Amino acid sequence: MLAALAVLGFVMLLLGQGLQFGMLAWRRESSTLAGVGDLDTVDRLLRRLVAGIDAGGIYRVTPRFVGMPHAVEFTSAMPVALPGVAAREADIALSASAKGGLELSWRPHLRRLLGPQEAPTRHQVLPGVVQLDLAYAGADAVWRSEWHDNVLPRLIRLRMVFGAGDARHFPDLILAPMRDAWAP
Questions:
Q1: I want to staple 77 with a disulfide (CB 3.0 to 4.6 A). Which of 52, 150, 175, 177 is the partner?
Q2: Is the dihedral of CA 159, 73, 57, 108 positive or negative?
Q3: Considering the entire predicted model, what is its pTM?
Q4: Which residues contact 161 (CB under 8 A, 6 or more apart)?
Q5: Is 37 helix (H, G, I), strand (E, B) or coil?
């Protein structure tokens, strides 16, 4: 009987250690997946916004696009799922905030606006981003750090730099505006 209790105690000790190891592994995997999930969500959001950049629309106007080395401003179709967004088109600005994060600000795009525009809504999309580097390529396939042209760039390269000690890594994104200007 004493030998059986000793064996049972040893088995219980092994099961307890295995359960503790499994719980620790589960917690670490959950936190890793949460970080990757945030990056995946940001990736999909940025791709959707850039793909929907307005190229001039039916009004045949010069597209609103200002490409700077560390920020970009454009008009794009907003994702439907954003709460509180009544307009389909929005003026969007993307930059790294002073507090350390990727910041997205938007306001409804009203082409024939009479009166003052409302203040933009700001949202930190991804915390921990200390620098945002952008480059733009046109039809000549040459990368530039700024874009001030009457047409949209063909490609936009976006690089996010995280703070020291942050284990996350976001590969460079190469994004392409997909909307064409309206033609009769």
A1: 52
A2: positive
A3: 0.71
A4: 129, 130, 131, 132, 133
A5: helix
